[in-house]
Write a structure and sequence with these properties.
The complex is a heterotrimer of chains A (337), B (618) and C (313).
Chain A: H1 5-9, H2 19-48, H3 53-58, H4 64-73, H5 80-93, H6 106-141, H7 146-160, H8 163-176, H9 199-228, H10 231-239, H11 243-281, H12 286-296, H13 299-327, H14 329-332
Chain B: H1 8-11, H2 15-18, E1 22-33, E2 39-49, E3 53-57, H3 64-70, E4 79-88, E5 91-92, H4 98-104, E6 109-112, H5 116-119, H6 126-135, H7 144-154, H8 161-164, H9 173-185, E7 191-195, H10 203-220, E8 223-228, H11 231-235, E9 240-245, E10 248-254, H12 255-258, H13 265-273, H14 311-315, E11 321-323, E12 326-328, H15 333-338, E13 359-368, E14 373-383, E15 387-391, H16 398-406, E16 412-418, E17 421-422, H17 432-437, E18 438-441, H18 455-466, H19 471-484, H20 501-513, E19 519-523, H21 531-548, E20 551-556, H22 559-565, E21 568-573, E22 576-582, H23 583-588, H24 593-601
Parallel strand pairs in B: 3-8, 3-9, 6-7, 7-8, 15-20, 15-21, 18-19, 19-20
Antiparallel strand pairs in B: 1-2, 1-4, 4-5, 9-10, 10-12, 11-12, 13-14, 13-16, 16-17, 21-22
Chain C: H1 3-6, H2 9-14, H3 22-32, H4 34-56, H5 87-93, H6 96-123, H7 125-138, H8 143-154, H9 158-185, H10 188-194, H11 200-208, H12 213-237, H13 248-254, H14 264-292, H15 298-306
The chains are: A mainly alpha (337), B alpha/beta (618), C mainly alpha (313).
C-alpha cells in the first residue's frame, strides 16, 4: 500500500548523487500533496455533502434560529473556498475548533487519546514484529516440518478473522468465561493516560499482537524461503560456508528487505484496527474517540482524527520506503556508467 | 583464414609430467527424482587427470548441470544422488559426513556458476564475499588479504580497495564472472567445476575467461570439468570431451578424435548442426526431442531420432564400446566408424543480381529512448529475395533496429522506404499493406505465443486482420502454413504450453508467413534454442525464403550463423555501423579492427583436418 | 469413418471455443486440494445457513419471548439475548443481509478497481498518473475509517455502507491489476498483435483480459473476505442494520454485557463469522497456490530446471 508507484514509473534516471535524499524529498512532496487532497476530501465529506452539516447535527431539533447559529459556528454561511481556507488555516494555527458534543477544545479532547493509542500501537507493533519475524524465520528453516504446517495453517486462519472476533475471544477466555484474570473493559475515564493502570493494556495489546503476527509471519517465511532457495545461497553452500553462517549472513539479511516493508504496513494496519479494539475494551484512545464522534456527528473532532490518521499513514509510508531503499544496495547505489 | 587458434605449441609440452595423477574419478554416478523416482542421470563414469580439462557437453535436458553439481556432492531440491562414486584424490565425496563435505567444498573442489549475477549475493560487497571463501576454510592460507589480491590479479581484475567495496550489481557481466572465478581459485582447489560460465557474455569477454581458465589450470595443476552446450567453445579448450544425451554419456574420448570423427549418431548429428564461421554450409539438425526422465524406456534413448537405428536398439540400452580410443554407447559404433562423416553441402547462395527494386532501404537512421541515441547513421538495403544479417554484441542496438523497421519503436529519424514507398514511423501510421508486408519473429518462443489461445487461433489471427477471408478458409490456410513449417494438423488444437521450444518457434514463423509478407525480420530467433533445434530452424528459414521469395533481415550475435543464412552482413557496434558488405568479403577479409577482433575471438570447432585443443593424457 | 472424422481436423479444432474455460478448470483443480476443499466447505455451509436461516428459524427473531440472558433450554436451544429474544432464531436470521452487502461491495470494488487498474496500465500516460494518484489518496486511510467518515455525515444507510466499502476496495484492486496488466502488456505476444495494427481496446479485451483471470480470481476472494470483515465490524460498532434487525456483528456487541450469563449469544455469531471468513480466505489461498504456483511440488520444480524449460525469461 505504499506510495511507491510514482518512482517505479519514472524510467531510468541518471546517476543520482544522493538517492536517499531525493527519495525523501520526493515522497515528502507527494505526501504533502496527498494530505492536502485528503483534507479536501474530508472537508467535502463533512461540510458539503447533501444534508447540510448543521441540519445533520441538529437532526429533528433543527429550527431556523438554531440552524443559523450553528451554521455561523461551523462557518457554513461563507463561500465554499472560504470555508476550506478557514478550516485549513485553523488546523495549522492550532485553532481546531470546539467539540460539538461537549464544547471542549478539540485538541484537549484528542491529545490524551492520541497518546494512549500511540502507546497501544507501538507496544503491539514492537511485540508483534518480533514474534512474527522470529516465528516466520523458524518456519522457513524447518520448512515442511510439523511446525511449519501448523503455524502456516494457524496464520491463515487468524489472518482471516475480524479484529473484534479476536478481541471477544480473548475476553471470553481470559476475562469472563474461562478464566477471570483480566478486566474485560477498562473503566478509565476519557482523558486519563493508559499507563496509570497497566493491567488494562494487556488484552488490547494482545489482541493487536495476534492481529499482526500472521502477516509478518507469512511475509518473513516467504522471503526467507525465497532467500534459502536462491542461487547465491546455493553458491555459498557450494563454497563450503557452514549452514549457520549461510542463514545469518546470507539468507536473513535478504529476507529482511521485503519484510521491513510489511512491518511498516503493519503499523498502518494497526492504526485502523485500533478503532475496533479500543471500542471493545473501552480503551480511551483515538479509535474510541472517533467512534463516539461519529455517533454524535461531532464534525470537528471527526475531521481532526481522520487527518491525524492520514498523516500517520503518509509518514509511515515514507519511512518504510526509505528503509526499504537502505536495505537494497542495488537501488541505493547506482551502477557506475 | 584469419582465425587465430590457441597456440598449440604451448599445449604439447610435457604431457606426461602433468598427467600422472588422476584427480577426479567418477564411477557409475546415478541421480534420481526424489528418493525413488525415475533416473535423471545414470551410469556416468569418467576420469580427469590433474591439469586437464574435461568438457561435459549436452543440450537442455541432458542432465549435465545435475552431474556438475554432483561433483560437489550436491543435488538440487527434488533430486537425490542414489548411486556411484565421486572420488577426488582418492576420497569418495558422496560418502563423506556433512561436516567433511563442507570442508571439502570450496577448498578442494570449487564451482563456477552459470549466472554470476544470481550467484553473488546482491547485498554483500564483492571483497567480503571473496574473503568469506577463504575464511570458512581456516588454515588454507595465513595472509587472507594477500591471497585475495593475488587471485584477483590472476583473473585480470583490479584489486584496489575501491573494487573490493563494490556490490555485484556495480560490475559488468564479465567482471562478475571473473570474481566468481577468483572465488573458485582462491583456495587452490584440486578440481574446478565450471557450469556454462560464458553464457551471456560477449565473445571477447568469453575469450578472456576461457584463456584465464586454461592458464590457471595449467599453472596450478588443477583438473577441471567444463559444462557447456557450445561445442565450439569446448572444442578449443578441453582435451577430453563427454557428450551427454538423455542422462547418459553417449560418447567420451579425446577431443582430437571425437570432434573430427564422431562415432555416436547423436554426436554426429550435433556436430552437423554447429554452424561454421569459415564455411557456408547447410546445417543438419536433429528432428524430435530427447525423452524426459521417466519416459526413457529400456532401449537407447536416441533410437527414435537415429538414422542408424536397429530393432535391437529399442529393446536394450547399449553398453559403452571401446573403439578408437573412446567409449561409445552405440550398437552400431563399428559400422559408423566405417561410414565416413558426411561433409556438409555448401550453401548455394543465389546472388542478388538483378533484384527488383522492391525491398527495404534505410538511410541515416537514428533512434533512441529519450536519452543518448541508441542507433545512429544506419543505412543499408535489403533487396528482395535476399537475406541481410545484422550482427552485434549486446547493447549494439540490433534489437532497436529491428523494432524500428517493424514499427514497434516509433521515435527514429531518417529515411526508410519499402517497395519504393516511404515507411511512416510507428505501427499506427502505417498502411495495412505495409503492416502486412513486413512481419516479425520474436526471440523468445516462450513468450511470443498467447498461452490462452490454440495454435490454430494464433496462426489464423493475422488473416482476420489483413484479409477478408471467411472463417473456414482462414483455418484452412493456417493449416497449410503449418504444413509448410513441418507441423502436422494435430498441432492445430494444441496450446503453446504443450509444445517444445522448437515447435513454438515454428508456430511463430507460421504466424508471420500466413499473410504472405515480402520482408521477414527475425530477431535472434534461435538464441533461446538448442543447437540441434537451431539448425532445423535455420534450414527451415532458408527453404521458406527461397520458396516464398522473401527478403529477410536476420539479427544475431552468432557470426557463424551468418555464414549459413545470409548473403550480406552488417556489423553493429554501440549503435553505429562498423562494416557492411557481402558475407564472404566481411568474414574473410574484414577491414575494421572491431570486426577483425570479433572474428578472432569467435570460438571455432576443430573438424577433420584441423588440429584441436590440448592433447589429452591417454 | 465416423461423421466427426469427415470434418477436416483444422476446422474442427478451431470451430467454436475449444478454448478451455480456464476459470472452471482452475476451480476444479482447487477443490481437489485440501485447503480448497476445506475452505469451500466452511464458506458454503455458513452461506447456506445464512440463506435458508430466516425460513427455518423456530421463533421470530424480534419477538421478546423470555427473560434476558436465559440459559439454553429445550425451547431456546441457545438461550436468549439481552432483550429476551431467541438467540437461535436471531442467529439464523442475522447473516443474509451481511453476506449480501459484502457481496455487493466486493462486486463494486472489483469492477471499479479492475477497470481503473487495467485502463491505467494499458493507456499509460496522463490517465495512468491521474488514476494512480487518486488511488494513492484513497489508500491514505483505512477502509473502516473511510466508511466511518461517510457514515458520520449521512448516517448509517445500508446503501452508503456498501458504496463506501466497495469504493475503498477499488484502489487495492486497481493496484494489483495494474501491475499484472503492465507485466502482460510487455509480453511479446501482445506486441505481436499490436504489430497488426489492432486498436488498444481490442487488444485489451482479446489478449490481455484472458490472462488476467488468475489475479482477478485471487483478488475477488481476498476482497470478499475483507468485505465481510469490515461489514461485520461496522455492524459491531453500531453502524450497520439498525435494531431490532438481527445481524451477527451487532449481536456480538449487544450481548457483550451478558457474557457471564449467556455467552452463546456472543459465541455463536462470532463463530459463524469466523468460520465464514476462514473459509473464504482459505479457499482464496488455495486458488492463489494453484494459479501462481506457490509451493509447487519439488519434483516438478527440479524437472523443469533440469529440462531447461523455463516458461518466462
Amino acid at each position: 500500500m505504499s506510495v511507491a508507484t510514482a518512482s517505479v514509473r519514472r524510467g531510468p534516471s541518471r546517476a543520482v548523487a544522493h538517492p536517499i535524499r531525493t527519495l525523501v524529498i520526493r515522497r515528502a512532496a507527494l505526501g504533502i500533496v496527498t494530505l492536502l487532497l485528503v483534507s479536501v476530501v474530508v472537508f467535502l465529506a463533512t461540510e458539503v455533502l447533501p444534508g447540510n452539516a448543521a441540519f445533520a447535527v441538529l437532526g429533528r431539533s433543527a429550527n431556523p434560529a438554531r440552524l443559523h447559529s450553528l451554521e455561523r459556528q461551523l462557518h457554513l454561511n461563507r463561500g465554499l473556498l472560504d470555508q476550506y481556507w478557514t478550516w485549513l488555516s485553523g488546523l495549522f494555527s492550532g485553532r481546531l475548533g470546539d467539540s460539538l458534543a461537549n464544547g471542549q477544545p478539540v485538541w484537549s479532547l484528542v491529545e490524551p487519546r492520541l497518546v494512549n493509542s500511540a502507546v497501544l500501537v507501538f507496544l503491539a507493533g514492537a511485540i508483534g514484529t518480533v514474534i512474527g519475524v522470529v516465528l516466520g524465520a523458524v518456519a522457513a528453516l524447518r520448512k515442511d516440518g510439523w511446525f511449519d504446517h501448523v503455524s502456516s495453517v494457524a496464520a491463515l486462519a487468524v489472518t482471516s478473522l475480524p479484529e473484534f472476533v479476536i478481541a471477544i475471544t480473548l475476553v471470553i477466555v481470559f476475562a469472563t468465561n474461562v478464566w477471570h484474570l483480566l478486566p474485560a473493559v477498562s473503566l478509565l475515564p476519557p482523558g486519563t493516560y493508559a499507563w496509570s493502570q497497566p493491567k488494562l493494556l494487556i488484552l488490547p495489546v494482545a489482541t493487536l499482537v495476534i492481529v499482526i503476527v500472521p502477516y509478518l509471519f507469512r511475509m518473513m517465511r516467504g522471503a526467507m524461503i525465497e532467500a534459502l532457495e536462491s542461487d547465491y545461497v546455493e553458491m555459498a553452500r557450494l563454497k563450503g560456508v557452514p549452514e549457520w553462517r549461510v542463514v545469518f549472513t546470507h539468507a536473513l539479511p535478504s529476507a529482511m528487505a521485503p519484510t521491513i516493508q510489511v512491518i511498516g504496513l503493519n503499523f498502518l494496519y494497526l492504526a485502523g484496527g485500533v478503532v475496533v479494539v479500543e471500542y471493545v475494551f473501552n480503551y480511551p484512545g483515538i479509535g474510541q474517540g472517533l467512534v463516539f464522534a461519529v455517533g454524535n456527528r461531532d464534525i470537528p473532532v471527526v475531521q481532526f482524527i481522520v487527518l491525524v490518521l492520514a498523516a500517520f499513514y503518509v509518514l509511515m509510508n515514507i519511512l518504510t520506503d526509505v528503509i526499504a531503499l537502505l536495505a537494497s544496495p542495488r537501488r541505493r547505489i547506482p551502477r557506475e556508467p | 583464414m584469419t582465425s587465430d587458434q590457441p597456440p598449440l605449441a604451448e599445449t604439447a609440452d610435457e604431457p606426461s609430467a602433468r598427467c600422472d595423477t588422476v584427480r577426479l574419478d567418477v564411477q557409475d554416478l546415478a541421480i534420481r527424482l526424489g528418493e525413488s523416482g525415475p533416473d535423471v542421470v545414470s551410469e556416468i563414469s569418467f576420469a580427469v587427470p590433474s591439469g586437464e580439462v574435461l568438457g561435459l557437453v549436452g543440450e537442455s535436458g541432458s542432465g549435465k548441470t545435475t552431474v556438475a553439481l554432483a561433483l560437489l556432492g550436491h543435488a538440487r531440491r527434488g533430486l537425490s544422488i542414489t548411486g556411484g562414486q565421486v572420488r577426488l584424490d582418492g576420497r569418495d565425496l558422496l560418502r563423506l559426513s556433512p561436516g567433511d563435505l563442507r570442508a571439502v567444498r570450496g577448498a578442494r573442489v570449487a564451482y563456477v556458476p552459470q549466472d554470476p549475477a544470481a550467484a553473488l549475493n546482491p547485498t554483500r560487497r564483492v571483497g567480503a564475499q571473496l574473503t568469506e571463501a577463504l575464511r570458512v576454510h581456516p588454515g588454507t592460507v595465513d595472509d587472507i588479504a594477500g591471497r585475495v589480491q593475488e587471485v584477483l590479479g590472476e583473473v585480470s581484475l583490479d584489486a584496489s580497495p575501491a573494487m573490493l567495496r563494490r556490490y555485484p550489481h556495480q560490475l559488468s557481466g564479465g567482471q562478475q564472472q571473473r570474481v566468481a572465478l577468483a572465488m573458485a581459485f582462491c583456495c587452490r582447489p584440486s578440481l574446478i567445476v565450471l557450469d556454462e560460465p560464458t553464457t551471456g557474455l560477449d565473445v571477447s569477454t568469453q575469450r578472456h575467461v576461457l584463456d584465464t581458465v586454461r592458464s590457471l589450470c595449467r599453472s596450478y595443476g588443477v583438473a577441471a570439468v567444463y559444462v557447456s552446450h557450445d561445442l565450439a567453445v569446448v572444442g578449443g579448450l578441453v582435451a577430453q570431451v563427454a557428450v551427454m544425451y538423455a542422462g547418459r554419456i553417449a560418447e567420451i574420448g579425446a577431443t582430437t578424435k571425437v570432434f573430427p570423427y564422431p562415432l555416436h549418431p547423436y554426436t554426429r548429428g550435433l556436430l552437423g548442426a554447429v554452424p561454421s564461421v569459415d564455411r557456408a554450409e547447410v546445417l543438419t539438425g536433429i528432428e524430435g526431442q530427447p525423452p524426459r526422465p521417466g519416459r526413457r524406456g529400456r532401449g537407447c534413448s536416441f533410437a527414435s531420432r537415429c538414422g542408424y537405428v536397429l530393432d535391437a536398439c529399442r529393446s536394450h540400452a547399449p553398453e559403452p564400446v571401446l573403439i578408437d580410443g573412446r567409449a561409445v554407447r552405440c550398437l552400431r559404433a563399428e559400422d559408423i566408424q566405417a561410414d565416413a562423416a558426411t561433409q556438409r553441402a555448401a550453401v548455394v547462395t543465389s546472388p542478388a543480381a538483378g533484384a527488383p527494386a522492391a525491398g527495404l532501404s534505410l538511410r541515416a537512421l537514428a533512434a533512441g529512448y529519450g536519452g543518448p541515441p541508441v542507433l545512429s547513421g544506419i543505412g543499408f538495403d535489403v533487396p528482395a529475395e535476399s537475406c541481410v544479417a545484422v550482427v552485434g554484441e549486446s547493447g549494439s542496438g540490433k534489437t532497436t533496429l529491428a523494432r524500428c523497421i517493424v514499427g514497434l519503436h516509433a521515435s527514429w529519424t531518417g529515411d526508410m522506404t519499402f517497395g519504393g514507398v516511404s515507411l511512416p514511423r510507428g505501427v499506427q501510421r502505417r498502411s495495412r499493406d505495409q503492416l502486412k508486408g513486413i512481419q516479425y519473429v520474436f526471440q523468445n518462443p516462450y513468450t511470443s505465443l498467447n498461452p490462452r489461445k490454440t495454435v490454430s487461433q494464433i496462426v489464423a489471427q493475422p488473416l482476420e486482420r489483413f484479409t477478408g477471408l471467411p472463417f473456414r478458409e482462414r483455418v484452412e490456410r493456417a493449416g497449410q502454413v503449418l504444413q509448410d513449417v513441418s507441423l502436422g494438423p494435430d498441432f492445430l488444437s494444441r496450446y503453446p504450453d504443450q509444445l517444445s521450444g522448437g515447435e513454438r518457434q515454428r508456430v511463430a514463423i507460421a504466424r508471420a508467413l500466413v499473410v504472405e509478407p515480402e520482408l521477414l525480420v527475425c530477431d535472434e530467433v534461435t538464441s533461446a534454442l538448442d543447437v540441434s533445434v537451431q539448425a532445423v530452424i535455420v534450414e527451415l528459414l532458408r527453404r521458406l525464403q527461397r520458396e516464398h521469395h522473401l527478403a529477410m533481415v536476420f539479427i544475431t550475435h552468432n557470426l557463424a550463423l551468418v555464414r549459413s543464412i545470409a548473403q550480406s552482413v552488417i556489423v553493429l557496434r554501440d549503435g553505429a555501423m562498423v562494416e557492411s558488405g557481402p558475407v564472404e568479403q566481411i568474414l574473410e577479409r574484414p577491414q575494421d579492427p572491431y570486426t577483425i577482433q570479433l572474428l578472432q575471438d569467435v570460438p571455432r570447432l576443430a573438424t577433420a583436418g584441423d588440429r584441436g585443443g590440448d592433447e589429452p593424457c591417454r | 469413418m465416423t461423421a466427426a472424422a469427415q470434418v477436416p481436423p483444422a476446422a474442427r479444432a478451431a470451430r467454436g471455443p475449444v478454448r478451455r474455460h480456464q476459470w472452471l478448470a482452475t476451480l476444479r483443480t482447487v477443490i481437489r486440494t485440501p485447503r480448497g476443499a476445506v475452505g469451500l466447505a466452511l464458506a458454503l455451509s455458513v452461506t447456506v445457513l445464512a440463506a435458508i436461516g430466516p425460513a427455518v428459524a423456530p421463533q421470530s427473531p424480534t419477538a421478546l419471548l423470555t427473560v434476558p440472558f436465559a440459559k439454553p433450554s429445550g425451547q431456546f436451544p441457545l438461550g436468549s439475548d439481552f432483550l429476551g429474544r431467541d438467540v437461535l432464531s436471531r442467529v439464523l436470521a442475522g447473516g443474509w443481509v451481511l453476506l449480501l452487502m459484502a457481496a455487493a461491495a466486493t462486486a463494486l470494488g472489483i469492477i471499479v478497481g479492475a477497470t481503473a487498474g487495467i485502463s491505467a496500465a494499458y493507456l499509460r500516460g496522463w490517465s495512468d498518473s491521474l488514476i494512480m494518484r487518486t488511488v494513492d489518496v484513497i489508500l491514505a486511510f483505512p477502509q473502516l475509517v473511510f466508511a466511518l467518515l461517510l457514515v458520520s455525515v449521512i448516517g448509517p444507510k445500508l446503501w452508503l455502507i456498501v458504496l463506501a466499502v466497495g469504493l475503498s476496495h477499488a484502489p487495492q484492486v486497481a493496484r494489483v491489476l495494474r501491475s499484472a496488466t503492465l507485466e502482460i502488456s510487455e509480453r511479446d505476444y501482445v506486441k505481436a498483435v499490436e504489430l497488426q495494427g489492432m486498436r488498444p481496446t481490442k487488444v485489451m479485451r482479446t489478449e490481455i483480459l484472458p490472462n488476467l483471470i488468475s489475479p482477478l480470481m485471487v483478488e475477488t476472494g481476498l476482497r470478499l473476505t475483507y468485505s465481510i470483515v469490515i461489514m461485520a465490524g461496522l455492524a459491531f460498532l453500531g453502524f450497520g442494520q439498525q435494531p431490532p434487525a438481527a445481524n451477527w456483528g451487532s449481536m456480538i456487541n449487544e450481548n457483550r454485557i451478558g457474557l457471564t450469563l449467556n455467552p452463546w449469544a456472543v459465541i455463536v455469531p462470532a463463530l459463524l463469522i469466523a468460520l465464514l471468513t476462514i473459509g473464504t480466505n482459505t479457499f482464496t489461498d488455495a486458488v492463489a497456490r494453484v494459479t501462481i504456483g506457490v509451493d509447487r511440488q519439488p519434483e516438478e520444480v527440479a524437472l523443469l530446471d533440469d529440462l531447461g524449460l523455463q516458461e518466462v525469461k
